[in-house]
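I am still getting used to backbone structure tokens and would like to learn alongside you. To get us started, please write out a protein record for me. Once you have written the record down, we can walk along the chain together.
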Amino acid sequence: MTTVFGLKNCDTCKKATKWLDRFNVAHTFVDYRDNKPSPETLLEWAGKAGGFEAMINKSSTTWRQLPDNRRAAASDAEWKLLLREYPQLIKRPVVITEDGEFSQGFSDNGFKKRFNID
């Protein structure tokens, strides 16, 4: 089953889950404010995303309001701490399929390709 990680009030997450419902893709939704990803999970996601910086939604209000020293995380430990404290910084949604394939974000065409929908 596909797992969608995001925020329940996020419009992009809502669009992604509605798309999955419409195309009958079995999925579960995990709000990562309520169920924060473990440091190990964050490290795994960062590896698949191309690093912690690639996981960050830098256009978010939360990111822009962070002090410069927090935005300049220099180690995996600092990134993990930051993302556990502010999970809303993670680009949404994070989608993990049963085979472990990872992706971030939502687009109709991207999901059609990912889930082999014509």
In short: The beta strands are 2-6, 27-31, 94-96, 102-104.
